[in-house]
Amino acid sequence: MIVHHFESKHSVLNHFIAEIRDINIQKDPMRFRRNIERIGEILCYELSKTLNYDTKTVQTPFGTKDIALPIDKLVLCSVLRAGLPLHQGLLNYFDRAENAFISAYRHHPEGRDEFEVIVKYFAAPRLGNKTLVLTDPMLATGKTLENVLNALKSHGIPKQIHIISVIGSKEGVEYVKGVFPEGTHLWIAAIDEELTSKGYIIPGIGDAGDLAFGVKL
């Protein structure tokens, strides 16, 4: 796996990361969602530099211009519900991409620390010979992405896989390295050192889905 980690590359991205971490700014769900969306825009711009391009001739009012344009067939796949703002950030730039959605959540039997990831809803186009972009804002243990990958196999094998995450744990990043194909790219804004016993990132941001859309039962 090729990991693109942007935390130490000082840019405006740091400002958006600081705001989604800030316990006071987090109280504004609309700003939280917009910051996640903006982070998605920045990461997908970086990802776009690795795509395949072909030169097209564009007619202007005064002549023609040859421009290199991306030619990959993209499928953007987001994990519900936390991945929706991140998905929108990618869709702002990759507006002609196909889309897929999958629900994956943690189930803690009897409130124990141990959990299983349950996948229930899944809608996706065929993936064969396409570039798959998986979006999940929090890469904690990596098990959610593993389950998503397994669910997607029924829809064909993509020629390339990219993962876009906002914040991950060092343990989670190492886990997905062993699960995904060798040539997979991970685009991630920040990597934190620790996980709690229940698999939450420390210092992290808390529950991204709750911060974006409200507390669930």
Question: How would you describe this structure to a colleague?
Answer:
Helices cover 30% and strands 34% of the residues. The mean pLDDT is 92. With 217 residues, it is of the alpha/beta class. Strand 4, helix 3 and strand 5 form a beta-alpha-beta unit. It has six helices and twelve strands. The protein has one domain (2-51, 71-213): 3-Layer(aba) Sandwich (Rossmann fold), CATH 3.40.50. Helix 1 (13-21) runs antiparallel to helix 2 and helix 2 packs across helix 3. The longest helix has 20 residues, at 29-48. It has helices at 13-21, 29-48, 84-93, 143-152, 170-179, 208-213, and strands spanning 2-5, 53-60, 63-70, 74-80, 98-107, 116-123, 131-135, 138-139, 160-169, 185-192, 194-195, 201-202. The protein is globular and about 65 Å long. Strands 1, 4, 5, 6, 7, 8, 9 and 10 form an eight-stranded mixed beta sheet that branches. Strands 2-3 form a two-stranded antiparallel sheet. It has a two-stranded antiparallel sheet with strand order 11-12.
CATH class: Alpha Beta
- Give the low-pLDDT segments: none
Shape: globular
Strand content bin: 25-35%
Largest sheet: 8 strands, mixed
Task: Give the number of DSSP strands.
Answer: 12
Specify the number of helices.
6
Distance between the termini: 36 Å
**CATH structural fold name:** Rossmann fold
Domain count, please report it. 1
Helical content stands at 25-40%
- Whole-number mean pLDDT: 92
The arrangement of helices and strands along the chain is EHHEEEHEEEEHEHEEEH
